[in-house]
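Notebook, p. 212. Picked up where the previous page left off. The plan for this session was modest: take the two constructs that came back from the sequencing core last week, fold each one, and keep the raw output in the notebook itself so nobody has to go hunting through shared drives later. Recording the first one now, exactly as returned: residue sequence, then the structure token string.
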Amino acid sequence: MYHKEKITEFPKDFLWGGATAANQVEGAWQTNGKGLTTAEVVRKADDRRHGSMGDVNEVTLQEAINDNSDEHYPKRRGVDFYHHYKQDIALFAEMGFKVFRLSIAWSRIFPTGLEEEPNESGLAFYDRVFDELEKHHIEPLVTLSHYEMPIELTKRYNGWLGREVIGAFNHYTEVVFKRYKSRVKYWLTFNEINTSAWGFHETGAIDGELSEQEQLQIRYQAVHHQFIASAIATKQLKSITPNAKIGSMLARMQTYPATANPADVQAAQIEDQKNLFYTDVQSRGEYPEYMNRYFADKGIIINMEADDEAILKQYPVDFISFSYYMTNVTSADGVQDGIGNMSLGGRNPYLKESEWGWQIDPIGLRISLNALWDRYRKPLFVVENGLGAVDELTADYKIHDDYRIDYLRLHLEQMKEAIIDGVNLMGYTMWAPLDIISFSTSEMSKRYGLIYVDQDDDGNGSLKRYKKDSFFWYKKVIETNGQTV
């Protein structure tokens, strides 16, 4: 009789930690030769329920380039991790972090993306960050491209629509792989690569004023170039540091049918396939058959070169990472409630939602973990998950964020259940260990952190760091390897 010992706890080598992005945390946007990026030309949103990531056209782009301030572009100032990294990493270490997910700002290394030689000051900054992580025995998990690329590549090639950007990106990846080969053993290529379907913030291509068909053509062609660049990066890494691991990164949006009507079930299946298409390519090394019909129906033609299919097949990713914040509801009639700036589809009546309209579904995380494990049989890594909320700093500098603790606890409980189900889960980096500039709206009021940063939406404040109640809770979670969840 076959019997395998049942796992009932988080693995002993489970990687607990937190995640950030350079364009939301670093600041110092003009320091030591850094170039302007696509993230730094997106204006702060006027409405927190409607993100501004896609509101970039030729006119607004030029306005942003001409504006030499951070007043309307808060990602330029971040929360000054560039100058506070030692303090911040010490706080992460106090919580017991095993891993810290960060991204390298491509434009710190190659300010326009077109230079032959890298910017030594940019490379040296990340050396200092890695020094500090090593001092505290924290593993870095590095994202190579987290929603930013040098703006010159948008101006010259319309971002990833231009195949020329593959060479520029892989010149950058080769440099950082060689520089940090003894320091980083976990890498990710493109953050939430599937959000390329939403446009500029991920592709760097300006297409907001085009027809839907034209937009889809541009976005899927752009992501094809990213697939190729990711596979080439994997090839480079395996040559430079054979024992290192590289993963894909998906914005996971589990889709439920609105009813038991077979038409709704089928609509949800199609929507879920569109979400998983990206990891299908990066994990399996080939385009899935179901996309052929979608491309044909939408009039999309993916232009490939002779070796593209071979490089995808030969160099798939080692593991699959993903963000998880919400689930979606899909119906055959295509009705969307527009409940939040990152929520798609219809409202789920069984779920609560955040102030930004993001519906909270811890059980959906377990469902997603099982679905991804069954589909790919590769190690999984939850590299983003958290609650954006308005926090109040008390007169004695305390932040009582029981709502965040409850959110994280419920999701960790479902992760544990998935592990008991048999899912191979490497680790968890919650978003984000300290308050940072919001991706979707560029506001500071939407706080995710376990550490409060004294800065308001206009950039006023001391930038002092204060520990929230969730800081001490998460410390206990890590100390007990999840047994206090």
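Okay, moving on. Second construct, recorded in the same format:
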Amino acid sequence: MSKSVFIGIDIATSNVRAVAIDRTGTPLARASEPLAQVIKREDKSATQDSKSWITAVDKVLTHLCKQLIEEGFIPQSLLISATSGTFILCDKNYAPIAPAAMYNDGRASDPLGRAAAVIEASKQSGPFHFANTPEVLIAHLSEQPLPQIPTDSSHGLKMGVDFKSSDYLVATKELANSLNITLPKVVLPGTKIATISNQIAAKLGIPPIPIYAGMTDGCTAQIAAGGATGSVTSLGTTMVIKVVADSNISGDGFYSHLLPSNRYLLGGASNIGGVSYQKYEAELESLNKKAAEIGAANFITYPLPVTGERFPIKSSSITNLMSAKPESDVMEYRGILEGIAFTEKYAYDLLQKAGAKLSQTIYTTGGGGKSKVLSQIRANILNRPVAITNTTGSDMGAAFLSLASHIKSGDDLTAELMKINISQIEIFKPQQDEALSSNYQKYLTLISPYI
């Protein structure tokens, strides 16, 4: 067995996770560390101590490399994924002027709007340097000045990036200039942007390996589950739909990230999902069995637990829709599962009409994949096999990209990702279900006032 391994790190909201894989994509070592708590205040700000990123990354790399060295594995590359939209602003000495503004900071709806709020609160005039989470960590690991570290087009996308020029949009540059902010240079995912410093490499007991430009956590989660070609549904608290396209597609509630050299990762996120049946969480095992036995529900629902939806319906006023009151808990649960599956189908249909390509199999990650009845309902209504995958997590996707970046020819990450094995736990094959198909038509009628 080859002793070469490739490291992926994901910086989430509450923790840092790292994994090392071999050339087949098999995980060989893992480590994780918590991050500082996100602080939310009355001004709608959501912030985090960025120093905790550095402390946690140092710890996970120390633990991970210790495991690797003991087994005789040799790291070859490193790639970092993070939540898109989280950033820090630094002064002319590259010290943060405030805690990191999180992706869901409510002071504005976009990163530069939040940056303006941070500057106003700091009562400083600049100049300032803007840095996404990965740049901060790469500067630390390479011991290079922060302005020398570029961002990737995926983490920079919410700022406004033109994929063709690998640069910011004119409006983005003008707004940044008006705020006296310097933005990091933009490079494509897979670009070598730094090397772990000799000092840090010696401390970890590894070679001074290259660090490659990554992608956001949503993209790396998709890559972990479906590689460079798979359509992926993440069924966690909410439902996230991701597909692959050959062109840059966007629309209400969905947009694309470039996967060099010729693919785009396209998707959107709904507010329904596991949260829709949260009140039945203690009874899921029993309800899943009973829901499979009763067949199609006798009512239709869009099981929205809040007011407002992002995708596939974009509406600030839509709320939980029900065609009738369910006669029992089992019937309500069954109807909620169908509502999730119908929304998934409607979302995929929208993305197909926009120009996306669906894979023959729909790959599934998240806790919702544990429900066999939901998986079978989804397969039936999608008329496609539904596969529950074994390779999940943004850290795994980052590791896949780390491997592909290191061995690629030119800038073609897609070709290398297609060689990685995506392990599957179980596959649900579609079955004809006329009652379910009839319910889907009623579902389209139910949501029609909002589409």
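Notes on construct two before I forget. The chain has two domains: 4-214, 226-450.
Flagging for discussion at group meeting.
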